[in-house]
Amino acid sequence: MFKLGVPAAAETFLYQLSQLIITSLVLWFLSEDELITKTYMSNIAILFLIFSSAVGQAAQIVVGHLVGAGEFDEARRQGFRAFRLAAIIAGSTVLLSMIFRVPLISCFTSNPEVIRYTKLLFIIELFLELGRACNLTIIPCLRGSGDVRFPTLWAIFSNMIIGLGGAHLLAIRCHMGIYGLWIAMALDEVFRAVIMLIRWNGSKWKEKRVATQAQ
Fold it and tell me: Which residue segment(s) compose the domain that 141 sits in?
């Protein structure tokens, strides 16, 4: 339980920790309007990621059963299928929200600066959510196969170096503000997504199998 559970929990913990620190950066270095924009965009993003998260949880169960039965090729196929489904749903939802961006944001605020910020942020959000759709589906598939340490180790690097480091560099040092913050978060998600896809397309995760088919 600890061998599988602790690395899986650590990966989620690191992500939440990086988000907390990023929010602190906004509080200290960016404007009040940018902080408000981040708050609203983060809440709206829940509508995008909740579908990917649900697909990922279902895929983890399916992959766990298939890996336990030794059906590795089918497990891989189901993992990629889950990713495609999550990416289509997340991408479509972001595009729909982009079209109706103004009335959507106007539900929260009439601040013209906040509405202006979201115009470009929704474009960046599209790439962010496609990367996150991969991470929310492929990482659970890796966990379902017993490969729990690999995502956690890469999360340490990506969240802390690309996510936090990129946020500090782009948002503060390069004076890109909220845009730099969102680009850094998107780079973090997309980078990890590429690494996870390479791992899932390989064969190392097959060696991590914990469950076996009952005889």
Answer: 12-203
